[in-house]
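User:
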Amino acid sequence: MSVALSSNMLITGGGRGIGAATARLAAARGWRVAINYTSNAAAAESLVTEIKCTGGDAITVQADVADEAQILRMFRTVDEQLGPLGALVNNAGVVDVPADVADMSVARLQRMFNINVIGSFVCAREAVRRMSTVRGAPNFGPGYGQGGAIVNLSSAASRLGSPHQYVDYAAAKGAIDAMTIGLAKEVANEGIRVNAVRPGLIETDIHASGGLPDRVRELAHLVPMQRGGTAQEVAQAILWLTSPEASYTTMSLLDVSGGR
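Assistant: Predicted structure:
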C-alpha cells in the first residue's frame, strides 16, 4: 500500500494502548514512525525494538504534550531524525478518577485540558506549519510543504457526556471535535486533511489509570455489539484516515464504538 508523499508519522502517546497499536500497524504498512512518550521510556523503546525486528522503522521521542517547549523540541527531533511529516496522530490523553463536576478541582481541570486539548492544538499547529503547501517549504526548506494528514483522537464521551465519571474528559474531547472541524476547513486548500476518530469502550489500560480497570467489561451490555473494542480496531480506522484511500475525506468524526 502506498502512503503519503512523506512516509513519516508522529504518534503522540504512542507507547501504549491505541497509540502503540497504531504504531505497529503504521510500521507494517510502510510508515517510519516517531513514537512519543512522556515518562515510560521502557515501553516506548520496547515497541521500537519490536517494530525493527519485524522490518519496520521507528524512533522514540520524549515530550510532555502539556509543555509547549517540549512539543517544540519533539518536532525538531522528528525533523532531524526522520524529516518532513506525512501524518500526525494526536493520541496523547489522560482521564482521572471518577468524580461529579461538583467535586472537581481546578488543578484536575487544568491538567485535563492542558494535555487533552492544548497539547493537541499545539501539536496540530506544528504539523500544519510543516505540512502546508503554502507555509511548509518557505519556513522549513526542501521536502516540506507536501501536505499530509492529521488524525485527532476524540471519544464517544464527547457525545455521551460521561456523567458522574469524566464530564471533564468528555468536554475536552468535545473541544477536539470542534478543533477538528475548524482546522479541517482552514487547511483543506493547503494539502492537509484533518479528521478525528471517536473510540467507544476500548480495552486499554487508560481505564485502570482512571481507577476503573473493569469498566469495559461492566459496560459492555450497553454497546449494541455487546462487547468492548480493541486498540487494533481503532488503529485500523486511524490508518485508513491517513491513507490515500481517504483522499477525499476531511472534517469527519469517525465513531469506532460498536454502535454506542
